[in-house]
Amino acid sequence: MTWFHRLLRIDLTRHQTSIEEIPIHVTEAFVGGKGLGTYYLYREIAPQVDPLGPENKVFLAPGALSGTLAPAASRYEALTKSPLTGIYLDSNAGGHFGPELKLTGHDLVILEGRSPTPVALVIRGDEVQFRDAASLWGRSVYETETTLRRDLGDPRFRIASIGPAGERLVKFACVSNDYSRQLGRGGLGAVLGSQRVKAIAALGTRTLPVADPDAFMAAVQAALQQIFQNPWVAGNRQHGTIGGIDDLHALGIVPVANFTRGVFAGMERIGAASFGALVEARLACANCPVACSKGTRWQAGTERDAIEGPEYETAALFGANCLVDDPQAIIHANLICNEAGMDTISAATLVGMVLGAADEGLISWSDLGLAPDAPRGEKVIALLR
Ligand code: SF4
Fold it and tell me: Could you tell me which CATH number the domain at 6-203 has?
């Protein structure tokens, strides 16, 4: 395995940091990512802790192979006590932030306490800067990442940030990195918002020690061969996660109108082929040969209004579950969530529930400020806003 055996502890209350050694028996037993983060979470967070209180902590743990040439080892885990469920939360994201964080020389970063004012944490090796983020507070994820990277003056920085949803402690706020990759579920963005951490920028300064480079590269080659020979990978590269939506609909698994139906009449218009026709770019997380990610754009928007996705869950929930058959409305809803820093799954489920209540006459369209005959996609966008 590839470890630094070091954790970076960031005391947000005092704006201080410390480095601690991670014992070898801990890394060997808990490996990295989720295992390592969970080990420290259970030792450091008491059961009665308020998820949005100053005693909760966030544990950022890149995967054990993150930062090496191992294929698709791009992910990092974030662990905390969830404000949405009140229990253990681990969420993971791809992109490029995880490997960059690992290459700062830390297997784990622990955020604890609460900053007196909004901060952006800038981690360059062992050097951590607590940067005033008052001017970023209130800005969207896209604006935050672009502005912070420009202000840091080095395009190599990888950035994770929260949007206005996290600042307002929305319980399904997410953390976004590389613009469009999310630690989506469970409200991690609200926990960072409660800590007044607007963004984390990481720039690696180290290389990872590999015990036997020749054996490691042989294992990498073998893994690559297996990946390229796997027929599932070809389909995933071609369509991304949305590629399965038509088959899942045929099986009756796609949520339709809050799971009250098994079939959505507009499915063909939001199927894999429809979204495939809108793909403008094919993207990949760090060192990933699968490259499943698809770049699309809200066509009524500007150059900036591009997203990675929509992924299957987003398309199914803003689409079939909300009875929306317009791919552009789904991309627009995805974009709004990305900018605000909201989990698309929870947001779409909530919007679908409200639409369903109005459909059933439990609440009136006028109470929602919506015209009953407005296009379904417009209703979704209005409710999201
Ligand atoms: S590009 Fe797709 S398959 Fe590769 S790591 Fe990212 S999400 Fe996973």
Answer: 3.60.9.10
